[in-house]
Design brief:
- With 166 residues, the protein is α/β, with parallel strands linked by helices.
- It has four helices and six strands.
- Among the domains are: 35 residues; 81 residues, 2-Layer Sandwich (Trypsin Inhibitor V, Chain A).
- Strand 1 and strand 2 form a beta hairpin.
- It starts with 13 loop residues before the first helix and ends with a strand.
- Keywords: Membrane, Transmembrane, Transmembrane helix.
């Protein structure tokens, strides 16, 4: 019997040789795992579609159907989702055409200074400013925009404002 310190002609000690043989036997005896790629892909797609259906159902149940319709309309612009339903009075809301996307701009309750700043942002011109009276309005606040929703305003157009006389 030889000790583990003896060197074999292969250049390995008996321990190293035994270790190599054990590792070879283990590598040869285990089976490779079997992955079903198409099944994994089907499961992933099914989970994704169920998730989308759940989110859609939650939006519709919560009253987000309008937002869902705006997103699923398939507009070419990535900002198409910005379009929203106007909830305030159409008389104080202006629809601004920004490269094919209609963006509602609500002036209700704003004073003349803030309204002028908003017109500068949309690159529209301020036309005439008239005074009017509406029940329970804050003096100096915008109570009317011309043209207003559903008409669309483009850059360079003139917008007339009506403010509360008090």
């Amino acid at each position: 019997m030889t000790s583990y310190g003896d060197v074999r002609p292969s250049g390995c000690t008996p321990f190293e040789e035994e270790l190599m043989n054990a590792m070879d036997r283990f590598a040869s005896s285990t089976e490779a795992p079997d992955f079903d790629g198409p099944q994994i892909l089907r499961r992933t797609r099914r989970r994704r579609s169920i998730g989308i259906a759940a989110v859609t159902a939650a939006l519709v149940a919560a009253g987000g159907g309008t937002a869902l319709a705006a997103v699923s309309s398939g507009g070419s612009s990535p900002t198409a989702a910005v379009t929203r339903t106007v909830t305030n009075s159409d008389a104080t809301t202006m629809l601004y055409n920004d490269h094919g996307v209609k963006i509602p701009v609500d002036f209700s309750g704003r004073d003349l200074t803030l309204a002028k700043q908003e017109l500068l942002k949309t690159q529209t011109k301020l036309g005439t400013v008239t005074k009017g009276s509406v029940k329970n309005c804050k003096p100096g606040s915008v109570i009317g925009v011309d043209p207003h929703t559903p008409k669309v305003v483009n850059s360079g157009d003139t917008v007339n404002l009506t403010i509360c006389a008090g």
